[in-house]
Amino acid sequence: MKTVSENTCFGGTQGVYSHDSTATGTEMTFGLFLPEETKDGPVPILWYLSGLTCTHENAMTKAGAQAWAAEQGIAICFPDTSPRGEGVANDDAYDLGQGAGFYVNATQDPWTPHFNMWDYVAEELPALLGENFNIDMDRQGITGHSMGGHGALTLAMNLPGRYRSVSAFSPIANPSQSDWGRKQLSAYLGDDETSWAKHDASLLMADKGFDGPVLIDQGADDQFLDLLKPEALAQAMAAKRQDGIFRMQKGYDHSYFFVASFMEDHVNFHAEALWA
Amino acid sequence: MKTVSENTCFGGTQGVYSHDSTATGTEMTFGLFLPEETKDGPVPILWYLSGLTCTHENAMTKAGAQAWAAEQGIAICFPDTSPRGEGVANDDAYDLGQGAGFYVNATQDPWTPHFNMWDYVAEELPALLGENFNIDMDRQGITGHSMGGHGALTLAMNLPGRYRSVSAFSPIANPSQSDWGRKQLSAYLGDDETSWAKHDASLLMADKGFDGPVLIDQGADDQFLDLLKPEALAQAMAAKRQDGIFRMQKGYDHSYFFVASFMEDHVNFHAEALWA
């Protein structure tokens, strides 16, 4: 593991690190905020998964999360959204290939050798953090924005016991029924839609739900509402009697101005579960 | 108008009053909490509509609303749920007739002469309060529980501009598709289901929505979930991009212990809109 940068931030450290990933077969980069309290003992961790076109950097610089994480004494990790680099498959479209890993393990060519973001986020990166930082891996929460909200919700529901809480900002909520999803799931997983179900938050919610609290924020003026399909998730949460809150936020769009506006609520929501 | 009782309560007055109603052709009784501030000038008002089998008294004594209304300086009115008395039609079932007015104007015998709770709550009682108490009728909010949540939501969406905010505790959310609804709407309004649409919160939400904020609380362990159908309302709110919050509250049932637990949130939610 290599230190790319470390900056003091709200009394803690905002670091960027890179490492050779077994899961993706590439060098991967991630951001990690550690609060001051990590000097005294292991701290809980909140995962923040980013959306289409993002790297590890977007939320780390624009979401304002460190202020609240510092206040709550929890770490936040910002993984990248896909493998990258020469020799890694890509597509001209912004929503497929590099920057658009969709948090799945690809089974189809040309994606299969590198696009294993599920294993990377669920297994490899947590193990790496546990070995190298003073983090309590028994206290994990997960959130994300857009494609990252999809990732957070699908990881949380597929790995019961792993995360104590899950939240999302304007998640891609029903990708098996959306142009943000059908194209990518078909490309990465093939045309057998039965393999897609574990990567659709609304289907998972209807089937399994989540064994902990859920918080969803969606901007009412989001320019991508037709692609995100929040109503499918809202319906599934209510029908499942899921412990959770779904908030439609008047006037907000899909941007990081929206994410930043409600970051305090999300960090505090996770902190309550992580410190319980 | 006759004063039945007045009790000092959180610095204000909890009153019970009765009057001869034109809308129902009966004597009607209501509860009214007035905060201390009503002595200095007109105060906003929050309507609380009650559920099946309730009178004006249940919420007035069990919901703990006065504490928060006093803190916020707003009045709360607790109407009865139907006309009552000898000569008023009734049914052996708890969910039809007296105690079960469903906030409609009946068009069918034997209900039509007295069961006009829509006109009573929407028109006659507000006019009476405006004449007799120091209340600012330009600042109204409305809430309710179960059948009363149904009443609050349907009144609010059918009378745009009347209420600044609407909330509900475990409302009967989709009565045209529920045994809490089909029986009563058929009895009061007849079998032509087109006349039912304005009395179904989920259909109204899909069609009109509400021009203001909405807050819904639903207990996840509510024993009547199959009758309440919260998922229909959650879906409609999200699909409409309604400014609002839908909360599924883990561990709570349909009782007033649930209502009381979240009353502070609802009063504060309305107060914010009413004092804006």
Brief sketch in words of this structure:
Chains A, B: It is an enzyme of class 3 (hydrolase). The structure is a homodimer of 276-residue chains. Chain A is of the alpha/beta class.
Textual characterization of the structure:
The structure is a homodimer of 276-residue chains. Chain A has 276 residues and is an alpha/beta fold. The first copy, chain A, has 9 helices and 9 strands. In chain A, helix 2 runs parallel beside helix 9 (256-274) and helix 6 packs parallel to helix 8. The interface between A and B is medium-sized, with 24 and 23 residues.
Question: SSE string of chain A, helix = H, strand = E?
Answer: EEEEHHEHEHEHHEHHEH
Q: Assembly state here?
A: homodimer
Largest sheet: spatial strand order of chain A: 1-2-3-5-4-6-7-8-9
Structural class of chain A: alpha/beta
Share of residues in helices of chain A: 25-40%
Low-confidence stretches of chain A: none
Globular, elongated, flat, extended or rod-shaped: what is the shape of chain A?
Answer: globular
Protein name (chains A, B): S-formylglutathione hydrolase
EC number (chains A, B): 3.1.2.12
InterPro entries (chains A, B): AB_hydrolase_fold, Esterase-like, S-formylglutathione_hydrol
Active site (chains A, B): 146 (charge relay system), 222 (charge relay system), 254 (charge relay system)
